[in-house]
Amino acid sequence: MTYSELMFVVIPKAVDSATPAIMAATLVFYLVSHFFKKKVPTSLLLTLFLTLVSYSFSAYSFNWDFFGNTINTYLLIVIYDMQLILLLWALHRFLKLQASNAYIYILVFSAINCICSSVMYIDLAWLGRAEVWWLWHVYAIVGKFIYLGIMIGLCTNKDFLNLRALWVKIVIRLNERKELKREEGAQ
Prior knowledge:
Number of domains: 1
Keywords: Membrane, Transmembrane, Transmembrane helix
Radius of gyration: 19 Å
Shape: globular
Order of helices and strands: HHHHHH
Transmembrane segments: 6-32, 44-62, 74-91, 103-122, 134-154
């Protein structure tokens, strides 16, 4: 087995297969905790459930070649990540849920994964590169850290990278802009 096969075939398939199992175990843990009257945020449970469903479907479609060779794998990753981001955002907006740490981590890491996968898709499909070069290795390594961040964020619901502070600053900044526009519109 070559290094390229290991980095680009074996490890990604193993991660795609293990991720839904880890998420399912985490969801069961939090549901049992919720059943025994432990305080588990609704945002965490819904984020975990939607992420589990999304990753389970993507693992199924990747491992069983659900779409055949009609859609590029990296484009499919972008579609799944964008779908997950939009569903989570809409669910939290509609239900007016307080953002859990897991929700913030899923949004941030899925957005990073979406950007990285878009770059890989452009490199492969549009630029037509067929030989392994440094960008592919960077993506392979960064991708593992993205999934690690998602798993730690979901399993622990802890703010281990201090992303909540960044999230709060962004939300405050957006709310200030809305208020400014309202004041300008009222005058």
